[in-house]
Each structure stands twice: as structure tokens, then as C-alpha cells.
Design a protein that fits this description.
Helix content: 25-40%
Structural class: alpha/beta
Strand content: 15-25%
Strand order of the largest sheet: 1-4-3-2-5-6-7-12
Number of strands: 14
Distance between the termini: 48 Å
Largest sheet: 8 strands, mixed
Number of helices: 9
């Protein structure tokens, strides 16, 4: 059962019908989440009327507190695996509705898979009904433990179909299939982004991803847990950069006929990240090693040639800058204001 958190005012209009929201009406599934709330904020700033849809399993209501005061914002409490009302007119749809960290998506793997598949079907039907453009937040996890490095969009991946991570990896791969089949069958305008490791403000302390894990452990003076040797690599994209990539992909004059990598191509080992976090938090935490989880990828780095050439997009925020902002956020969230070592800006 859907629950409307705030009712649309009659005076609000989409771009097709005039009104102060001249860019149209955008629906953001997963709008209360880490990235979803940033996207809602950006779309409002850009002149859209915004509808956030979230079941609040991992999204947080307080992420939307400021937005609730905006006359152009509406929040609907709803799980997208359930049918959406098709009489909800929208111009653009962004599908960010799926837990993205291993502890969260593995907690209920069947629901995770349903969110990717049934949720995508419901949103695609809404797009079909209203001839809306629709964006899918896919993931670098579709590449699995890659045998090609860095990973271009044309690489089909090396994914375990029946492991503990498969509910997310295979769910996202299935969603990509649905999006492009809807495009070929019904002419729907689809945009699919493969997101690489992202971090920033509004991550949760229990998120379970490596950046938030390390920062929270360091601020609490706990050991930083590194799985495996720590020589596995990741590339870390700050949330603001990623949201810019979303907007550019959605606004591109023509829809790419394939998914588009969005991430930071600068590669770090997990050990390098751990040492940077200890440095920026002035922590006395030690680094300890634990066994590597099943199917944990050894390398992860996007080839963003397409995004550079066709979207004019590449990340602008360095890891040092982004970590400084993210440490400040977690420090305030956990303890209130406390001095944090300034990171060198580069």
C-alpha cells in the first residue's frame, strides 16, 4: 500500500503544461537513499518537480527533511516491486531503488532480486504509459571479478550466478536486459549507467561499503578491517561527480545503445585507502586482516572513454578532497562537531 508523505499542490505543473517547474516532472525511485536524495536535490535545483518513491528499507526519511519544505517536492512511501499507479504523469524516471551494499542486499536476497526485476518492470510500464525517458542505475558488479582491466562497457563480465552476491549482480544484469528490450520493443528512451564505487555525505554508518566502514572504524578508534591482502583495487567516485554524470547521461541528445560506465578511473588499493583514512581522521586505529569474502573482485576500474567523449563528463573531486568532506560528515553524524584533520586539496 502506497503512502503519500506530502500531497501535490494543484498549482504544480509539469513542463508539458507550463508552471514554474519548467523542466517537467521527474520520479526518483529510491529517492530517500544516499544517492537518491542527492539526485532529488539536484533535480529540484534544475527546475524539475520531483516525486521521490521509497520503501524506507535502507533509505532514510531525514535525508529528505530539507526537501520536504520545497513546494516542488513530493514523497510517496511505496515498494516498487508492487504495481505503481499508472495515472501518475511523469516526464523522466530515475530508478535507484535497490540496496547497493553487500550486508543490505544479502539480508533479503530474494527481495533484492525482485526489486531489480519486478521493480524495473513496473517503472518501465510507467515510462511506457507516459512516454517518459527512464534511467537505470546499474552497477560495476555486472562485471563480477573481471578478467579484463580496466572494464569497458563492451566487456560481458565474469559473474557467479549462484553465489551470495548474485542476487544483486544478476538482478542488475537482468534489469539491463529489460531496459534494452523495452527500448527495442516499445521505443522507450532508456539510459543505463554502470556505477562504480561511490562515497560521500549521507552514507550510513552501517552501510557496509569500504569507505564508510573505514571512516567509522577510524573515528571510533577501532581496528580497520581489511579483507584479504588489501592489494585488491577500487576506484572511488565522489557522489557530487556521479550525480553530474547521471544528469548528463539523461540529458544527452540521443540515448546510447548500451550501458555507460560512470566512475573514477583513478585506482587505489584497499590498503592505500585504509592508510589515507587513518591519516585524515588522526586515528590510532590499527589495520587488521580478515578472509576475503566469496566472489570479492580483485580489480575494479572503469574505462570512461565513452562518458568523456559523448557526455563531456569525468570526475572532478579527488579522493583526498572527497575523503575530507566525508570524514567531516561522519564525524558530525557520530559525535557532533569535533576537529578533523584537513585533507590536502588537489
Amino acid at each position: 500500500m502506497s503512502k503519500v508523505i506530502k500531497v501535490l499542490k494543484p498549482s504544480m505543473g509539469t513542463g508539458r503544461r507550463g508552471g514554474s517547474f519548467n523542466r517537467g516532472r521527474a520520479l526518483v525511485a529510491g529517492g530517500a537513499g544516499f544517492l537518491g536524495s542527492h539526485l532529488c536535490e539536484r533535480l529540484l535545483r534544475d527546475g524539475y518537480e520531483v516525486i521521490a518513491v521509497d520503501n524506507f528499507h535502507t533509505g532514510k526519511r531525514y535525508n529528505l527533511n530539507v526537501l520536504q519544505r520545497d513546494p516542488g517536492f513530493l514523497c510517496i512511501e511505496h515498494d516498487i516491486i508492487d504495481t505503481l499507479p499508472l495515472d501518475l504523469p511523469v516526464d523522466e524516471i530515475y530508478n535507484l531503488a535497490c540496496p547497493a551494499s553487500p550486508p543490505h542486499y544479502q539480508a533479503d536476497p530474494i527481495h533484492t532480486f525482485k526489486t531489480s526485476v519486478l521493480g524495473s518492470l513496473n517503472l518501465l510500464e510507467l515510462a511506457r504509459r507516459h512516454n517518459a525517458k527512464i534511467f537505470q542505475a546499474s552497477t560495476s558488479e555486472v562485471y563480477g571479478d573481471p578478467l579484463v582491466h580496466p572494464q569497458p562497457e563492451g566487456y560481458f563480465g565474469n559473474v557467479n550466478t549462484h553465489g551470495p552476491r548474485s542476487c544483486y549482480d544478476e538482478g542488475k544484469r537482468s534489469a539491463e536486459t529489460l531496459f534494452f528490450d523495452y527500448s527495442r520493443t516499445y521505443g522507450i528512451d532508456v539510459r543505463v549507467a554502470r556505477i562504480f564505487n561511490t562515497y560521500g555525505r549521507r552514507m550510513q554508518p552501517d552501510d557496509g561499503r569500504v569507505v564508510s566502514n573505514f571512516i567509522v572504524q577510524a573515528l571510533r578508534g577501532e581496528d580497520l578491517t581489511v579483507y584479504g591482502s588489501g592489494l585488491q583495487t577500487r576506484s572511488f567516485c565522489y557522489a557530487d561527480d556521479l550525480i553530474e554524470g547521471f544528469i548528463r547521461l539523461m540529458n544527452a541528445p540521443s540515448a546510447p545503445a548500451h550501458p555507460v560506465n560512470l566512475g573514477n578511473p583513478v585506482e587505489f588499493t584497499v590498503m592505500e585507502l585504509a592508510r589515507l583514512v587513518i591519516d585524515y581522521t588522526n586515528s590510532r586505529s590499527r589495520i587488521v586482516h580478515r578472509p576475503l569474502p566469496v566472489d570479492d573482485p580483485r580489480q575494479r576500474k572503469p574505462d570512461i572513454s565513452f562518458a568523456r567523449q559523448h557526455l563531456g563528463w569525468e570526475p572532478q573531486v579527488s579522493l583526498s578532497q572527497g575523503l575530507a568532506h566525508t570524514v567531516e560528515y561522519f564525524d558530525a553524524l557520530l559525535y557532533g562537531s569535533r576537529p578533523v584533520k584537513e585533507a590536502a586539496m588537489s
